[in-house]
């Protein structure tokens, strides 16, 4: 987390890459940015510490080749989003925005998987302990 308390940015992530941030309720989430700076994906789960968020991201990164998405129509408005289901079919990660076309959403998920697989393994700040997530998983 930086001095402002607004998030922990990996080196070079100001334009693209992994970033953890503090949610308004004090817990943490992560996001993945494309090299152009656009947020591609955000975690659906909230974590108790930045280290837990980093571990969640790293677990997803190592499984990138096997990820599948559920593409669904947004509840309010027009568009499609992709969601990667986690345990108990609860969302693990999702697109950061809605896409106008189903095919565009599919392509966005494919680009996310490629970007995720390109991320370097993280040096996790908290190795000890179990992963405690606020969504009960």
Walk me through this protein's architecture.
The protein is α+β, with helices and mostly antiparallel strands and 137 residues long. The protein has one domain (8-118): PH-domain like (Roll), CATH 2.30.29.80. The protein contains two helices and seven strands, in the order ββββαβββα. The protein is globular, with a radius of gyration of 15 Å. Helix content is 22%, strand content 25%. A seven-stranded antiparallel beta sheet has the order 1-2-3-4-7-6-5, with helices on one face.
Summarize the helices and strands and which ones pair or pack:
Layout: E1 8-9, E2 17-22, E3 28-33, E4 39-43, H1 50-62, E5 70-73, E6 80-85, E7 91-95, H2 102-118
Antiparallel strand pairs: 1-2, 2-3, 3-4, 4-7, 5-6, 6-7
Overall average residue pLDDT: 82
Q: Could you state the order of secondary-structure elements as H and E?
A: EEEEHEEEH
Instruction: List unreliable stretches of 5+ residues.
Output: 1-13, 126-134
Radius of gyration: 15 Å
Summarize the structure.
With 137 residues, this protein is of the alpha+beta class. It has 2 helices and 7 strands; from the N terminus they run ββββαβββα. The two termini are 24 Å apart.
Notable features of this structure?
about 140 residues; alpha+beta; PH-domain like; seven-stranded antiparallel beta sheet; globular; disordered N terminus
């Amino acid at each position: 987390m930086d001095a402002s308390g607004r998030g922990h940015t990996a080196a070079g992530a100001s334009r693209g890459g992994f970033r953890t941030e503090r949610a308004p309720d004090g817990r943490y989430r992560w996001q993945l940015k494309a090299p152009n700076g656009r947020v591609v994906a955000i975690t659906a789960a909230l974590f108790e510490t930045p280290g837990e968020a980093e571990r969640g991201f790293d677990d997803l990164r190592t499984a990138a080749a096997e990820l599948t998405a559920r593409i669904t129509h947004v509840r309010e408005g027009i568009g499609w989003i992709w969601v990667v289901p986690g345990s108990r079919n609860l969302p693990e990660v999702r697109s950061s925005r809605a896409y106008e076309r189903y095919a565009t959403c599919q392509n966005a998920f494919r680009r996310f998987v490629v970007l995720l697989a390109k991320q370097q393994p993280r040096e996790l700040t908290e190795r000890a302990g179990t992963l405690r997530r606020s969504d009960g998983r």
